[in-house]
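Lecture 7 notes: from sequence to structure.

We start with a single chain of 234 residues. Read the sequence below before looking at the structure.
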Amino acid sequence: MSVEKVAVVVAGGSGMGAAAARRLAADGFKVAILSSSGKGEALAKELGGLGVTGSNQSNDDLQRLVDLTLERYGRIDVLVNSGGHGPRAPILEITDEQWHTGMDVYLLNVIRPVRIVAPQMVKQKGGAIINISTAWVVEPSPMFPTSAVFRAGLAAYTKIFSNTYASDNVRMNNVLPGWIDSLPATEERRDSVPMQRYGTSEEIAATIAFLASEGAGYITGQNIRVDGGIIRAI
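Now the structure, written as tokens:
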């Protein structure tokens, strides 16, 4: 008898997180979704899964999500970490408090759930963690300073995690979206993309689904750009 696969999507109530939850459910995963808005619970109900209203900045809420998931399904095979939007301002005008908020939104949003979920994956001898990051990790943009700084930190965290847990068959990769249709569209941004269009949340979800699949079983510690060719550095 085949084992039922389970995916946890953090910050999955809307945008790319919600698209990932839909795609994974379509691929046969049971899904558990955390969101702060309540949209995650509604989406989970629609998909026949488990929804929790709570914050990815709360260890208690994350622990509740994981406990309920294990209670219902007995395992966690995939963890998808999405997030919100952090402070934006000219770099010298960002306050200490705003930098701390950026760290919560763009780095600790991954570290917290991974700390809770990874031991279960190690116990299972398998699991895939996929973090939604940004295309501007390698070439940081002054438009998104807190995102660029802390997601560069996320790239380092991902390499260390992957080196540590690859032998347990627990993988971690980052998806790096460019301009995606979950963001407000502008002509200037569209023109900056070699493909001359915004990407779709569904394209990000398809990349996540691949990284969650057995076909990506030899991929870990990577930053996968899905940006229409904006960043072409090696």
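The mean pLDDT is 94. Keep this in mind for problem set 3.
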